[in-house]
């Protein structure tokens, strides 16, 4: 994982040990109380016409100001913590070639130092890629290895620990998603889950293909049976003593998705190692919860398979049996994520957690509906509102969508209990997937009349990957979308009350 270490300093413009300085500057036109700029800095900014518009970034020559290479980033008018997080993240992302960077944010902005530290930690991430560049080229594009943020003397160490854990969780997801599928089989991803939690109070259990068959996980087996690399199910359990709440997380982990026998077009297959993002996020959040010693039990279920075509692969028209005995007619083998998640939801529900959340790069329909920055949120109970509040607190974009009963009958199969895809009908594809998953969310107790467990479904098909120009602290590539919101949601125990 490559993200900068974050440290705090009570000095507003620290020079000792820093190689460069970033100053976040509000637009003085938006607030009569904006702090006055030192004369040397003001002159340098006037010379380049810097207006401090939100997100504006510039390298500035002002040797009389701090004696350090200087960059400024605009906060716009009436900036808040969210603005600071994005702006500082953008600055650290763009300011390359320096090992230690100091950051200064106006003390008047409530929560400003926390937001600056988080933005720096997120914006400073870089994937140790496979480019064969010279060391000189690598050094020029290298981002800061350490960022020192100006903070008050009474800055809370717990806040800094949470910022570091969140950044590390996002970095872990980005690393895993960026790894080519040739080096990340289902068995290898399961091993990574064990390795990255080995030094934490997390109990890990792995189902191989034999145990999956023995325990009836027909969805995961059915999706993975066409591959030479057999599937896995991983359970991670962080159960601190005295935990009053239990949150279960279920992640889709398709290590490569060809579509199976319902083969994707060539262009649509590029980048399909990303289809394990949901499982990576579940791993990262469980790990971060344990690192922070949150007083909440968190159980993670990673549903991992390769979806490949072969003589063994599941065929359209085959019937799979999910872990709860539900029979599913597979009408489209490229609607495989909901099949592995069905097994995971059944397994998670058997432990009667207080809330279940599944996260998956599930449907192209979600990209059509909400674009590439919003996560689609579905579910039942108060859990959806609780997650949306968590997302709002962390500044992540999420939008609630319905689960309309009037299309539920389109799940009906002539030969099985349900079918996995409504072939030939493109309307409401993301909703159809949500309705399918809802069937596998269990009840709060073993009685048939017990209410269903509160449930949230996160479709990150669009938000998990940035394919356009970088923005804020977000690079082109995997985004780690919903990791911080999930960690916030878990820390609040689901915040259902």
Can you tell me about this structure?
The active site is at 264, 338. Its EC number is 3.4.11.1, 3.4.11.10. Presumably involved in the processing and regular turnover of intracellular proteins. Catalyzes the removal of unsubstituted N-terminal amino acids from various peptides. The chain is of the alpha/beta class and 497 residues long. The protein has helices spanning 39-48, 81-94, 112-123, 135-141, 157-178, 186-197, 209-214, 218-224, 266-269, 277-291, 337-349, 364-370, 383-394, 429-438, 483-491; strands at 5-9, 20-26, 57-60, 70-76, 100-104, 146-150, 203-207, 232-238, 246-257, 297-307, 319-321, 327-329, 355-360, 375-380, 398-400, 418-419, 455-459, 465-466, 477-478. The strands form four sheets. An eight-stranded mixed beta sheet has the order 7-8-10-9-13-17-14-15, sandwiched between helices. Helix 5 runs antiparallel to helix 10 (277-291), helix 10 (277-291) packs across helix 15 (483-491) and helix 13 (383-394) crosses helix 15 (483-491).
Strand order of the largest sheet: 7-8-10-9-13-17-14-15
- Termini distance? 36 Å
- Total discrete domains: 2
Percent of residues in helices comes to 25-40%
**pLDDT < 50 stretches:** none
Mean pLDDT, to the nearest integer, reads 93
CATH topology grouping of the largest domain? Aminopeptidase
**Count of alpha/pi helices:** 15
Q: Which sheet architecture does the biggest sheet show?
A: 8 strands, mixed
> Given the C-alpha coordinates, what overall shape results?
elongated
Function: Presumably involved in the processing and regular turnover of intracellular proteins. Catalyzes the removal of unsubstituted N-terminal amino acids from various peptides.
EC number: 3.4.11.1, 3.4.11.10
Pfam families: Peptidase_M17 (PF00883), Peptidase_M17_N (PF02789)
Organism: Microbacterium gilvum
